[in-house]
Design a protein that fits this description.
- The chain has two domains: 291 residues, FAD/NAD(P)-binding domain; 226 residues, FAD/NAD(P)-binding domain (3-Layer(bba) Sandwich), CATH 3.50.50.60.
- 31% of the residues lie in helices and 16% in strands.
- The chain has 17 helices and 19 strands.
- The strands form five sheets. Strands 1, 2, 3, 4, 5, 6 and 17 form a seven-stranded mixed β-sheet that branches. A five-stranded parallel β-sheet has the order 7-16-8-9-12, with helices on one face. A three-stranded antiparallel β-sheet has the order 13-14-15, with no helix packed on it.
- Strand 14 and strand 15 form a beta hairpin.
- Helix 1 packs parallel to helix 15 and helix 15 runs parallel beside helix 17.
- The two termini are 24 Å apart.
Length: 544
């Protein structure tokens, strides 16, 4: 809604609304839907040209989700009743079609503003003022940050990378029409989920592919399969129950747990159970496994040994097997987010794929035509793909340049570590709320269920505020400090601190090393958050 009142003399308000949402992925879509139900005016600002969040941006070879259908979708019946997936782990094209379906079913677009970047947020006279790069100003009582975990790309600071004259691109900015690699020499730097997916696609094509590997990915098989419309229609009578049960599981999936503990099971029983989980595919091998692998080094070693044996039998080239599936374990399984693969290990086994072990000779510099490693070897490439990930969980939030009531920017507030309360709010930032955020289960869970849990909490909090005549709610610093400490204390009981993972912020030079994810599970997280909402414990409440 246009307005003519000035904001501290800095400009004219172009957008005035009860709720402003920043981010158009699952969090933004579900937020529009729920805030409308509450009768609030709502607007959404998205940097991209359409809904989809990470799936709007990620168009690289083989990009697909690692959470299986039907659980990787919103539980809005108006959407799922008229939608069917084509395969168990959908690809990026289908996920964009899903978001287009959400848009059509829920009439989302009328409240969305695309191709717009927010780069300044302040709290003035009881409202959040958000300024966009193109000079517009938005005013809202409530501000919801749904910027996601994987938006701010990480570009390694390789020496002389700017001198390279070939095609150099980050995996998150692939051209929509694809990238021509036929007959070309291609290098992929990075071995996380993106690197795995790109390599298993490119290896099958007519190109000379080099993969630079520092830490091998402990990838798990998807056992991908097509899904028929009839199969899904037959299952939809159970969808509401499945979605509900998923939110009651620590992972956000309706998966089962082992019948016994790791040490109560015999070696034969463990082996048989692992075979069963391996056969299911997807994250079952991780989520339904014995919980001891998270904390017990011996249990983790035995679990790794099973993975190593299953993986090495798929690679005929012993040198490649020794790089990708080490006999001697050098990282704890499950402490980095494992990637899911379809035929990755068969793909890297092909003759047109070269593996370069960065532990033996790291990247020293780029030159005009390629990469020079520390052993002095120079390799020429037509294309270099940086599958180097993101400044996850916090990068996109800090880029908003949001300032608190004391005019302290978020980057400064978090320079010594992240402080939130419940992963939902930040001290000294009243009525600012976050979705798929740091210090919540987020990346250790299925995305849509935890997003719905958080948005539903936000909607209920605002409803309670309105009913009680509350103008603003702000988390107390002592509550945020305790929440942070609880997360780090839980973390210290596990093997997570021993991994250089983006869970720990360890993938970004100079970033504080800390557990960025709430590791207690979706179910416990929701119970704690709901209890805090019931009594406003940990919050300062300002009435009108």
């Amino acid at each position: 809604m246009a307005a003519t009142n000035g904001v501290n003399g800095l400009g004219i308000v172009d957008i005035e609304t009860d709720v402003l949402i920043i981010g158009g992925g699952f969090g933004g879509v579900y937020s529009i839907y729920r805030f409308r139900q509450l009768g609030l005016s709502v607007k959404l600002i998205e940097a991209g040209s359409d809904f989809g969040g990470v799936w709007h941006w990620n168009r690289y070879f083989g990009a697909r989700v690692d959470s299986e259908a039907p659980f990787y979708q919103l539980s809005i019946s108006k959407v799922w009743k008229t939608w069917n997936w084509s395969e168990q782990f959908p690809g990026h094209e289908e996920l964009r079609r899903y978001f287009a379906h959400c848009d059509k079913a829920l009439d989302l677009r009328k409240d969305a503003i695309f191709n717009t970047i927010v780069e300044g947020v302040t709290y003035e006279d009881g409202h959040w003022i958000s300024r966009t790069r193109d000079g517009r100003i938005a005013k809202s009582k409530y501000l919801v940050l749904a910027t996601g975990s994987s938006y701010k790309r990480y570009y390694p600071d390789f020496k002389d990378m700017g001198k390279y004259k070939g095609t150099l691109m980050h995996s998150a900015v692939f051209p929509g029409s694809g990238l021509d690699t036929k007959g070309k020499k291609v290098a992929v730097i990075g071995n996380g989920a993106t690197g795995v997916q790109i390599v298993q696609e490119l290896a099958r094509t007519d190109c000379d592919l080099s993969l630079y590997v520092r830490t091998p990915n402990i990838a798990l098989p998807t056992h991908q399969r097509p899904l028929s419309a009839q199969e899904q229609e037959n299952t939809k009578q159970f969808y509401e129950s499945l979605f509900r049960v998923a939110k009651q599981h620590r992972s956000g999936f309706p998966y089962n747990s082992p019948a016994t503990s790791f040490w109560d099971a015999s070696p034969e029983q463990r082996e048989a159970y692992w075979e069963e989980l391996w056969g299911r595919g997807g994250f079952s091998f991780l989520i339904s496994n014995y919980r001891e692998f998270l904390m017990d080094t011996e249990a983790n070693k035995l679990m790794y040994g099973f993975w190593m044996r299953k993986t090495r039998e798929r690679i005929s080239d012993k040198r490649k097997a020794d790089i990708l599936a080490l006999v001697q374990q050098k990282q704890w399984i499950g402490m980095k987010r494992p990637s899911l693969e379809q035929d990755y290990y068969e793909a890297v086994d092909r003759e047109n794929v070269t593996l370069l072990d960065l532990n033996q000779a790291g990247i020293e510099r780029f030159d005009e035509s390629g990469i020079v490693t520390a052993d002095g070897v120079r390799r020429e490439y037509d294309v270099v793909i940086l599958a180097t990930g993101y400044d996850s969980m916090t990068g996109s939030l800090m880029d908003l340049k949001a300032r608190d009531v004391n005019s302290v920017e978020l980057r400064e507030k978090w320079k010594d570590g992240v402080y939130t309360y419940l992963g939902l709010m930040i001290p000294d930032m009243p009525n600012l709320l976050m979705v798929y955020s740091p210090q919540a289960p987020t990346a250790l869970s299925n995305g849509p269920p935890i997003i719905e849990i958080q948005v539903d909490w936000i909607v209920d909090a605002i409803s309670k505020m309105r009913e009680g005549g509350v103008e603003a709610v702000t988390p107390r610093w002592e509550a945020a400090r305790k929440w942070r400490q609880d997360i780090q204390d839980m973390n210290e009981q596990t093997l997570y601190p021993l991994a250089n993972s983006w869970y720990m912020g360890a993938n970004i030079p100079g970033k504080v090393r800390e557990q960025l994810i709430y590791i207690g599970g979706v179910d416990l997280y929701e119970r704690i958050a709901r209890e805090a909402l019931r009594t406003w414990v940990g919050f300062d409440v300002a009435k009108s």
